[in-house]
Amino acid sequence: MSDSSDLRDAKSPAPPGASGFYRSLPILRSFGDLADRARYRPLPEGWYVGAADIVGSTAHIEAGRYKMVNTIGVAVISAQINSADGEPFPYIFGGDGASFAFSGDHLEQAKDALARVMRWAFDEFAVEMRGAIVPIADIRAAGFDVAVARYHASENTDYAMFDGGGVAWADRQMKDGRYGVPMAAADELPDLTGLSCRWLPIRSKNGKILSILAIPQPGAHSAKVAGVMHRIIDLTRRLERGGHPVPAEGPDYKWPPEGLALEAHARHGRSSLFWHKVRLLWETFVAWVFFKTRLRAGRFDPNRYLRTTAENADFRKFDDGLKMTLDCDADTRRRLEAILRNAADAGIITYGLFEQDEAIITCIVPSVTDDNHIHFIDGAAGGYTTASIAAKMPHQPE
Q: What is the pLDDT of residues 38-56, one digit of tens each?
C-alpha cells in the first residue's frame, strides 16, 4: 500500500508514553479506508516487531494437519496477550504463524512468551518453530517501516493492520536465521488461557473458500497499489456479506468437537493430558447442550455468542498487503484474478490465490459471557500458507 518514504513523510508525533501508542490510535470503521497509507501511524521509536512461524508447514498441510498449524499460529498471539497485563498491542495472524509489535519496556515478557510457545509446539506436536524479535530501528535502517491502523470488526472487537513493508522484512530476517529467539527450557510452559478450536469447518455456500494475497511489489507507487486494493475491495463487497465465510448466525458445533485434542494439548499445562481431555469432554458437552437448545444460563446467551463469533472474525486484513478468506462464486473469482493478474503484469503487486471447500476458525475466548472473544479465519486446506507459495511463483499467461 505504501512505500517507506511515504510513511516517513506521513509521520505524526507519537502520543505521550510509547506504551499507550496502540490504545491511542483511532478505530476505523470502513475496511476500504485501510488501503490508504495516511490511515496508518508508524510505531514509536524503541518498539520491536515479533514474528513466528512453523518450519516445514507445507509438509504438515499436505499431511492434513492445517488445523494444528492454525492452532499453533494463534497460540503465538494467545501467549502474547496473556503476557501483556491487559495492555492492547498490535498483532496479526498469518496462518502458519503470527506477527506482533510491542514497546521496549515489554521486551523480556514478549521474548519469554514467544520462547515458551516454541517449546510447547515442539513438546506437544513435534513441530519446529522459528521466532524472532526485531528492533524497529533496524527495520527503518533497512529502508522499511512498520505503521499500524486499528479496524473496527464489531462493536466489541478491533484488529490491527500493518503497512510499510517492515513486518514482511522482519519475517524474511527470521527465515534467514537473524534476530532469532531460542526455544525455552523443557519445563517452561506458555500461558495459553482462552485458546480454543471447537467449531466445525465452514463449507462454502457460494462455490469455494478463496484465500487471496495481494502484496505490493518493491518500488510500486503507493497510489497505484491503493487503487488495486480498492478495486478488489469494491468487487468483494458485491458478495453476500462481503464474502464473509462465517454465517451471520454463527458457525456449527458438534460433540465431541473436532478440535478437542488440539485444545487439550494447548492447555493441559503440567496436568495429565488424559484427564484434561476428560474435563474438556464434559465442558464441551455442556456447551453443546446450550448451543443446541439455545437456552440461556446466567449471563451466557448462546444466540448472542454465536452472532458475535461471526462479527468478531478476521476474514480480511492488511498485513503489508491485502489478505482475504472469502466465500466466493466462480464469476467473482475470475474477475478478482483478472484484477490481480493485470496489476501483477503492470509491476504493481504480486499475488497468490488458493481454493478450498471449507474455512476453519481458531479462537481466543477470555470469557464466554463477554463479547470480546476473537476469531481467526483461514482456509481449511492450506489457506494463506498455500496462497503465499503461489505469490512467490511467477504467474504465467493462461
A: 999 999 999 999 999 999 9
